[in-house]
């Protein structure tokens, strides 16, 4: 795998993982019953982005590591997906 492809895949996967883990353990001002005047009650209570970045990085390392292990270690590719999936057509021979 080319390092440019690896970096691009890591960045896209990290960005998706960030949006997945962003709401985890988020405390809002409404949860704490302490709404600051001039803000909405659903605003986050305190900083939480560093934890979200760390969680997104961990999820990305696991996903990219699994993908790397499947492609480089076991030799799978995207062409193998059709051979792994069962054939659900009604006229398929058994």
What does this structure look like?
There is one protein chain. The chain is mostly helical. The protein is built from three helices and no strands. It is elongated, with a radius of gyration of 21 Å. The two termini are 38 Å apart. The mean pLDDT is 86.
Radius of gyration: 21 Å
Main sheet characteristics: none
Outline type: elongated
User: What's the total helix number?
Assistant: 3
As a percent range, the share of helical residues equals: 40-55%
* Mean pLDDT across residues: 86
Low-pLDDT stretches are none
Q: In terms of structural class, how would the helical and strand content be classed?
A: mainly alpha
The SSE order reads HHH
**DSSP strand count:** 0
The proportion of strand residues reads: under 5%
Determine the N-to-C terminus distance: 38 Å
List the topology elements.
Blueprint: H1 3-21, H2 49-73, H3 81-84
Question: What would a concise description of this structure say?
Answer:
The model has no long low-confidence stretch (mean pLDDT 86). Helix content is 51%, strand content 0%.
